[in-house]
Amino acid sequence: MAAPPQAPGRAPAPPLPTGRGIELLLLAFAAVIVTGALVIVEANQEQEVTTTLLWLGLAYLGLFAVAHLAVRRWAPYADPLILPSVALLNGLGLVMIHRLDLANADRASLLGNAPPSSLVLRQVAWTAIGLALFMLVLWRVRDHRTLARFGYTAGFAGIILLALPGLLPASISQVNGAKLWIRIGGIGIQPGEFAKLLLIVFFATFLVQKRELFTTAGRRFLGMEFPRARDLAPLIVAWGLSVGVLVFESDLGTSLLFFGILLVLLYVATERISWMVIGLVFFVGGAVLAYNLFGHVRVRVQVWLDPFSDFNGNGYQIGQALFGLGTGGVGGTGLGAGRPDLVPFAESDFMWSSLGEELGLIGLASILVIYLVLITRGLRSALAVRDSFGKLLATGLSYAVALQIFVVIGGVTKLIPLTGLTLPFLSYGGSSLVANYALVALLLRISNAARAPLPQRPSVPQAPLAQAATELVQRPAAADEARGAQA
Amino acid sequence: MNTPVRRVAISVMVMILLLLANLTYVQVVKAGDYRNDPRNQRVLLAEYSRQRGQITADGKVLAQSVATDDRLRFQRQYPNGPAFAPLTGYYSVLYSSTGIERASDSVLNGTDDRLFGRRLSDLITGRDPSGGNVALTIQPTVQQVAYDQMTAKHFAGAVVALRPQTGEILAMASTPSFDPNPLASHNTKTQQDAWKADNAADPPVLPNRAISETYPPGSTFKLIDTAAALQNGYTPDSPLTAAPRITLTGTNTTLENFDGTPCGTGATATLRDALARSCNTAFATLAGALGPDVLRKQAEAFGIGTSGMTIPMPVVPSSIGDLPDTAALEQSGIGQRDVRLTPLQNAMVVAAIANGGTLMAPHLVKEIQGPELETIDTTKADRIGQAVPAGVAATLTDLMIGSENRTQGGGKIAGVQIASKTGTAEHGNDPKNTPPHGWYVAFAPAQNPVVAVAVIVEDGGDRALEATGGSIAAPIGRAVIAEALRAGQ
């Protein structure tokens, strides 16, 4: 980037605050919290508290410092709160996964089994891969608007990725009943997580291009402008896609997520609340249909209504999660002092109850606030960025995080029926982590565009006054009118 | 496009608020329910991860927790399980707890208020928190003798020994008993098997008969008749009927003496003689003459009918029944009909007589100790009330010596005068053909008592229909007294 040419004899304009200093400070703060959390876990689990922990904390800080340098280099005006929020969430997730590792190792040694492989080391590796992708995206995508050029390609790739596990044989794709995986040689990938990003890019491209189509006046009904029936096609396609995911991959969460994101993007693009109403009707219809057609959906609903009536069967997970949350209470048992390992899948789907048991309501509320900061900073970028595609993309990405945490946390705490999704950045799971780092890189890219100063017009060199030719200056008409209005 | 984005932001905040509200409901409003749900093992696991305190008696460990390397870090052990099981109870992951394990749980797990200072210092010094110890009033050798005596002949029943002056429980055996060790096992299968076997056992092994079962007291109840009579114009020499059988007032039912014999040789027998011979007709008539109010008042003075008594385990209330008419009163006067006492209650009656008429509250916990055996709290002897005046108590002692001297059975102790009363209580739907319960209540030495005992042997012991309190219960009571006298020196 070349510095804008300065007029000779003028003081340079004061540089706009980029927020990079704040970002680094907050990253260091996150490192302190995460290291502190690790020390508490070790102390409560009666492991030796050594200086190794300090080195781990510094390594964590180093990893994010590199990410910070990448932001400094390639997106200097990016929002300074987004990366530290993500770093803190990821760090707390790592500490909790390590804590559950200790519990699993403990149990294995009691049963005389070989110690299970460490999940936290894998998650650290995934974090590194995620940050690498994060930097790659920042480096390669220098202007988010270029993504619009690949919108349809992204949509095509997204649908392929989404459909792939459903088409593959269950031996490769099925884990715990849901066909979401591609597992080759011990490494599993959930392509749906990446499809989520690609489809958001596609939706944003598509909606910006076809905006007029959806804003064409239809009938007015109940004070709302409803679209023409033939314009419903994209919504029906998305709905079909969601139902397809549900039928062929038994994945309630992803299905819900896609539909919700598309609906919100449609609403933002058209500014018409009627799309939400139609969407909700489709949603209710789909939900009723799913309840009546699929046994696993009915089971989920019954467990949601009363997990304790079948505590030793289907209700065990939710029941144990609620016991954990209740035992934690307001203040929690303290990191490393509870029994979060009693809940099956404590490190992935039920990460939230693990955190809730040991950190209590206070800890969970704090984590929710961190998520809220992340989401609102994303939406803030959507408001501030100047192009429609950027607005839609930023809204879609932010809302994806929001809806996902609502569905996961609501499911684990019995607010809504449980669906199998992971908590972004906190839960164990490589695909989710890596995909979400790409998501954050895109958000930072858009926020950079939103906060960067407008490119200045090359200033015309002015001749010294003495040599200047007389110019005819005309008073602008608008200024006249304004003055007239004041008078 | 900005207006809808703002609305989306608001909807996100609403979603987060919904989550927070629901979390508050789960973690604050419902937290207690979830925490204390029996299916929630977390509290239990936390309790097991602390070192639970010991239960000791005179320096002997009855229950202790030793470190293990399994999930529940401490294993509860009962070194002499069955003999002391009625005292310690058990402490089980699956089946909760009983006995002192339950009654003194807050001390043993360290949450008792009296251990607050200790907890505070644990917190500051970073010491592993551990529970307090409970030292019992039990004399281990007396308990062992009581248990051995009962089990040697496979008797079902109970033995209670009290120190009359303080109410300290020196022994409390219940047989047949169970081993609490497998119930405290960390192996689920072991626990379940033991639980199944213990519950299927016949006669039952889990209840502590001394405090949770009531039995008809039979002739031992005549002590209460006598106590009431001595305060209502009767003397040891007052004449009572000596008839071998009488007809209950207002009925055709006859009531007869043991073996249908007359009470001595005369037409009447003195109160002293009637008690020594345990004549049913005499005491039935006496109870009828005293009236229901006098009898009930005297029974209550000895603690019968008191509910909510704890030692600290809860004690089932004893009762003399409704006494609707004179016939009922006459039957109740010989400790039949609806009169039902716990073995502990019967021991309290003789202990009060032994203590100059003053009834002391029976208790099992001598002191509460901190984890390093430092005394934190000592139980003080608690006077319940004056059951009978001192003079009446002295007369009763005198009469009980007469009874002891006529009582059969072995185990008499040379040089020690025991004061006692036996009982042979009928029970069941066909009393004449059901082996009776044999009672022996006593204290010794008669003039300077150091121990009061109550023994019950269920269902005739090894003598079937021939059984009497003297033949089956008295030898056990005397052995227990002998050991208490020996241990007390």
TrEMBL record, chain A:
An annotated GO cellular component: cell division site
Keywords from the named record: Cell shape, Membrane, Transmembrane, Transmembrane helix
Subcellular location: Membrane
Entry's transmembrane regions: 21-41, 53-70, 120-138, 150-168, 180-208, 229-248, 277-294, 359-380, 392-413, 425-444
Entry keyword annotation includes Amino-acid biosynthesis: no
GO molecular function annotation: lipid-linked peptidoglycan transporter activity
Xref: Pfam families: FTSW_RODA_SPOVE
First-listed, main subcellular location of the protein, grouped into a coarse class: membrane
InterPro entries in the record: FtsW/RodA
Membrane topology: Multi-pass membrane protein
UniProt-listed GO biological process terms: cell division; regulation of cell shape
Keyword Transmembrane among record annotations: yes
PANTHER family (UniProt xref): CELL CYCLE PROTEIN, PEPTIDOGLYCAN GLYCOSYLTRANSFERASE RODA
Record's protein name: Cell cycle protein
Taxonomic path: Bacteria, Bacillati, Actinomycetota, Actinomycetes, Pseudonocardiales
From TrEMBL, chain B:
Molecular function terms, GO-annotated: glycosyltransferase activity; penicillin binding; peptidoglycan L,D-transpeptidase activity
EC number: 2.4.1.129
GO biological process: cell wall organization
UniProt keyword Glycosyltransferase, yes or no: yes
GO CC field: plasma membrane
One Pfam family cited in the UniProt record for this chain: Transpeptidase
Name of the top EC class for this enzyme: transferase
Region (Disordered): 184-212
Domain Penicillin binding protein A dimerisation: 52-134
Protein name (database record): Peptidoglycan glycosyltransferase
Protein species of origin: Pseudonocardia dioxanivorans (strain ATCC 55486 / DSM 44775 / JCM 13855 / CB1190)
